[in-house]
Write a structure and sequence with these properties.
The chain is an alpha+beta fold and 583 residues long. The chain is 38% helix and 22% strand. The strands form five sheets. Strands 5-4-3-6-2-1-7-8 form an eight-stranded mixed β-sheet. β3 (109-115) and β4 (122-128) form a beta hairpin. α2 (25-38) packs parallel to α6 (165-182), α8 packs parallel to α9 (311-328) and α10 packs antiparallel against α11 (360-375). It binds adenosine-5'-diphosphate (ADP) and magnesium ion. The site of magnesium ion has 5 residues, from α2.
Length: 583
């Protein structure tokens, strides 16, 4: 029998590889932009027509190629970035697999012009379906420009698979933004059908974020800057209340490469737990720097996925860093948009260490010290700068006061903190119920008179399904007879409530949200009860009650926002008041 196995021609293997690397016009943009970045460009211009389906042009002012390389670069597995296999573990460039240009060339028509700085003339190469059609000398500015036409012209099935111009353009913008965020020192522009979509000037990260996403992001960013042993995490996260209904604006970069990591995203969301409204997604642009030996980026041809040697460690790094940034963003100064490179990380860390060192009991009494310490700007603050007993004698006599109910005013040094009493109580209850739930221990306070609440059949049915969860919050509640429940006790700290009203309104909400209640039932029950059991806005409070509320608030894991992301307190300092008087 004749042998039937033969080697595939390179035009076919290239097309197979292209299947993995090049899925749509945006994949081409990504590969070309990465090449321009690797070529040390300062200016990169991207022009597309019809969502990139008919024409893509990328122009850079990078190092360019000589004539020999201008042809070689289209060969499969040809790269200038990697020599031996050990290089795979210290990759500093975006590309390394040497398969992008050969893949693109197998499914498109390409015209490339390139010139190196030291050469007189440049080279033009025309290649179509992996076949070189023409090589010639041209005059050209330094750098490389690549024009790609008719993507998938030779694979109709894939061409038909492409979506509308608008959808393809959306993908292009996404890739463009990822690269632009990771390379703030480069000027980028993007045009579609001759209309300018982006024109980004070299800047720092915060300004780049604003130029990409809009001026209103100026108010929304919280800085993150953490250094651990061999891991660094920096960038910006969005304030919880500015979260969006869509997941789009979330970016993790590892060693400056955009990656998709549901695992790290989960770590981040854990830190936002209790701060976000339902089905909302926080904004983030975070850069993780790790030793390149401790990761593997060669997991997928698109280089969008990554493997960490120690995944758990990365998870914890993200979670604890974000926790910290969220916990202090209300008490740190607003961001200086022109100087975000030297984040003052010492301040952040001192605060955190102190926070961890003081047990929560001690923290109750010392919250002013901790709070003050975290507030101090610029100055290096050590223990000697904390408010000591003598300095704070004035402080001690300065009791909180209820004015313009629901507000509680409290002076702290040269500033006034203004708390919303109901919202602060909601946060306190939320954390208390949550802890009860977690520890499965309920410390309810027995009522003198049990309250019987009669319900109709459907409501009773609903109630009985959730009765165990409600018990776990600390409610001593039971089924009574065929259609009522009896409440013998309520969680300590929530004494203000009308039980009947509580249960009725809870059932009302259950009915309204019946569907959504199933996905995170416990969290919703906790939130709903915390909202219902919080003190009323008009309730008059004794001084001791106010003090206790403030202390309890600052013992909370998160003290500046309610579980739904509402602000709990604001602060005004003397300078701000002076301004009202023009002094
Ligand atoms: P990789 O980027 O993985 O090396 P590519 O197929 O994307 O593989 O590119 C092949 C080679 O072509 C690169 O290694 C680089 O030497 C050269 N090259 C590609 N694009 C450019 C560019 N814009 N400027 C200079 N050289 C380039
Ligand atoms: Mg490349």
């Amino acid at each position: 029998m004749k042998s039937i196995i033969h080697k595939l021609p390179s035009s076919v293997t290239n097309q197979i590889a292209a299947g993995e690397v090049i899925q749509r016009p945006s994949s081409i943009i990504k590969e070309l932009l990465e090449n321009s970045i690797d070529a040390d460009s300062n200016n990169i211009k991207v022009i597309v027509y019809e969502g990139g389906k008919n024409k893509i042009v990328v122009i850079d002012d990078g190092i360019g190629m000589n004539q020999e390389d201008a042809v070689k670069c289209f060969d499969k597995h040809s790269t200038s970035k990697l020599k031996k296999s050990s290089d795979l573990f210290k990759i500093k460039t975006m590309g390394f697999r040497g398969e992008a240009l050969s893949s693109i060339a197998s499914v498109c028509q390409i015209e490339m012009k390139t010139k190196m700085k030291d050469l007189e003339t440049g080279t033009k190469v025309i290649i179509e379906g992996s076949k070189i059609k023409d090589i010639s000398e041209v005059s050209k500015r330094n750098g490389t420009s690549i024009t790609i036409k008719n993507i998938f012209y030779n694979i109709p099935a894939r061409r038909n698979f492409l979506k509308s111009d608008a959808v393809e353009l959306r993908h292009i913008i996404d890739e463009f933004q990822r690269i632009a965020l990771a390379n703030c020192d480069v000027n980028f522009s993007l045009f579609n059908n001759d209309i300018e979509i982006h024109n980004l000037k070299q800047s720092n990260l915060s300004n780049r974020i604003i130029s990409i996403f809009g001026n209103n992001y100026r108010e929304q960013l919280i800085q993150c800057n953490e250094e651990f042993d061999k891991i660094e995490l920096k960038g910006f996260i969005g304030k919880p209340k500015n979260s969006k209904k869509t997941r789009g604006e979330q970016f993790f970069f590892v060693n400056n490469r955009f990656i998709k990591s549901p695992y790290l995203n989960h770590a981040l969301l854990k830190s936002y737990e209790g701060l976000l409204e339902d089905k909302k997604f926080p904004f983030y642009v975070l850069f993780i720097e790790v030793d390149s030996k401790s990761i593997d980026i060669n997991v997928h041809p698109t280089k969008n996925e990554i493997k960490f040697d120690d995944e758990k460690l990365m998870y914890n790094v993200v979670k604890s860093s974000i926790n910290k940034s969220l916990g202090i963003h209300n008490v740190t100064p607003s961001i200086n948009f022109d100087a975000d490179i030297n984040f003052t990380s010492t301040r952040v860390r001192q605060y955190d260490e102190m926070y961890q060192n003081v047990s929560s009991k001690k923290r109750n009494n010392d919250w002013q010290v901790v709070f003050e310490d975290a507030k101090s700007e610029n100055t290096r603050i050590g223990k000697q700068n904390m408010i000591n007993e003598e300095d704070s004698s004035d402080q001690k006599s300065n009791d909180p006061i209820q004015l313009l109910r629901p507000y509680i005013f409290k002076q702290l040094n040269d500033k006034i903190l203004i708390f919303h009493q109901s919202l602060m109580h909601e946060r306190i209850l939320y954390e208390k119920y949550k802890a009860n739930f977690k520890n499965k221990k309920s410390n309810s306070q027995q009522s003198l008179f049990p309250k019987y609440i009669e319900l109709n059949k459907t409501d009773f049915q609903l109630m009985s399904e959730l009765i165990n969860e409600i018990k776990l919050l600390g409610f001593d509640i039971d089924i009574f007879g065929t259609n009522s429940v009896v409440i013998n006790g309520i969680p300590s700290g929530s004494e203000d409530i009308n039980e009947k009203h509580l249960i009725e309104s809870f059932i009302e909400e259950l009915k309204l949200n019946n569907e959504s209640f199933s996905d995170d039932k416990n969290e919703k029950i906790i939130r709903s009860f915390a909202k219902r059991c919080r003190i009323r806005e008009e309730k008059k409070l004794e001084i001791d009650e106010m003090k206790s509320l403030i202390d309890q608030l600052f013992s909370c894991k998160i003290f500046n926002y309610t579980p739904d992301g509402e602000k709990i307190f604001i602060q005004i300092n003397k300078n701000q008041i002076n301004k009202f008087f023009d002094v």
